[in-house]
């Protein structure tokens, strides 16, 4: 197996999480709070239909 580079921070975090497994629960709670949101297909469809195309050159008003 090839050895790959691991930064000091990566090694520290891996070892720290092994010593503090309760932090994974806190991590999952935070992820659920900020990222795991229920999706509304109808709202996504409306957003896609209402999207205005952008010109190739953003500052050209013509």
Task: Explain what the structure shows.
- The chain is an all-alpha fold and 62 residues long.
- 56% of the residues lie in helices and 0% in strands.
- It contains three helices and no strands.
- It starts with 7 loop residues before the first helix and ends in a 12-residue tail after the last helix.
Question: What would the keywords be for this entry?
Answer:
3 helices; mainly alpha; 62 residues
Q: Topology of this structure?
A:
Blueprint: H1 8-19, H2 22-34, H3 41-50
Structural class: mainly alpha
Order of helices and strands: HHH
Strand content: under 5%
Number of strands: 0
Distance between the termini: 58 Å
Radius of gyration: 22 Å
Low-confidence stretches: none
Q: Major β-sheet, in short?
A: none
Mean pLDDT over the residues = 87
Q: How would you summarize what this structure contains?
A:
With 62 residues, the chain is mainly α.
């Amino acid at each position: 197996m090839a050895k790959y580079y691991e930064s000091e921070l990566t090694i520290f975090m891996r070892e720290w999480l092994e010593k503090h497994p309760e932090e994974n629960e806190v991590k999952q709670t935070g992820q659920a709070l900020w990222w795991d949101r229920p999706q509304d297909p109808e709202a996504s469809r409306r957003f896609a239909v209402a999207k205005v195309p952008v010109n190739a050159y953003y500052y050209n008003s013509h």
